[in-house]
Amino acid sequence: MAPTGSPNSPLPPGSRRRRLVLTPAQKGALHAWFQHNLYPGIATRERLARELHIPESRIQVWFQNQRTRQLRQSRSGSGNSQGEGPPRRHQQPPEGRRKRTSISPSETSILLQAFEKNRFPSIATREHLARLTGLPEPRIQVWFQNRRARHPDQSRSGPANAWVANPE
DNA sequence: AGACTAACGTAATCAATGT
DNA sequence: ACATTGATTACGTTAGTCT
């Protein structure tokens, strides 16, 4: 039983974006920047994206993963209690964030419909929605993350339902 | 087969914007 | 002041690459 197949597939195949393979040159450049700043702002990330020919969202994820890697290595490596940088937040003036994306009511309506059908859209679906709305796919991914966090599956036999009772 | 790591998830929080 | 919601963080998990 349970031949080659997994007992259950939490995620349909092809739901993730294709994993990209970084060249040694790209990794080198990223590591170099990481040394200078663990928290690059949108301007730096966009510049790196242009120079390395990597989507900005992938740069952002690389820095996220890299911070975790370094912290993990710092800890388990040895009884290092000081010297290396503890999770010191940006000591330099923090670089600017991405400008808040404004999502129009009609765009929200499109995303909302998709959300009701599937709270975990595949990369193909997210890209489709990006075309429909004209919004960048990474913004759509974040939109779904925020939506899931703030609108838990209400079809659960939970509390007597106190959500938006619509006053008036 | 196991190490490494990009992609992705949640939870908490920061922060812009509108009322 | 406060509610809403987009953006970012830490950290754990999933799954593709490489040895």
Write the layout of secondary structure elements.
Layout lengths: L23 H13 L5 H11 L3 H22 L27 H13 L5 H11 L3 H14 L18
Helix pairs in contact: 2-3
The structure holds a DNA duplex (19 and 19 nucleotides).
Q: What is the compact description of this entry?
A:
The protein has 168 residues and is mainly alpha-helical.
Explain this structure to me?
With 168 residues, this protein is mainly alpha-helical. α2 (42-52) crosses α3. The N and C termini lie far apart (58 Å). Mean pLDDT is 83; it is low at 1-10, 79-90 and 158-168. It has helices at 24-36, 42-52, 56-77, 105-117, 123-133, 137-150. The protein contains 6 helices and no strands. The structure holds a DNA duplex (19 and 19 nucleotides). Residues 13-73, 94-154 form the Homeobox domain. Residues 15-74, 96-155 bind DNA. This is Double homeobox protein 4. It is found in: Nucleus.
Question: Main traits of this protein?
Answer:
disordered C terminus, mainly alpha, DNA-binding, 168 residues
Chain-averaged pLDDT: 83
Helix/strand/pairing class, anyone?
mainly alpha
Series of H and E elements = HHHHHH
Continuous helix count = 6
User: Unreliable runs, pLDDT <50, ≥5 residues?
Assistant: 1-10, 79-90, 158-168
User: Total strand count, please?
Assistant: 0
Largest sheet: none
First-to-last CA distance: 58 Å
**Fraction of residues in H or I helices:** 40-55%
Q: Any idea what the shape is?
A: globular
Our estimate of the beta-strand percent is under 5%
- Supply Rg: 21 Å
Subcellular location: Nucleus
Protein name: Double homeobox protein 4
Keywords: DNA-binding, Homeobox, Nucleus
GO molecular function: DNA-binding transcription factor activity, RNA polymerase II-specific; RNA polymerase II transcription regulatory region sequence-specific DNA binding
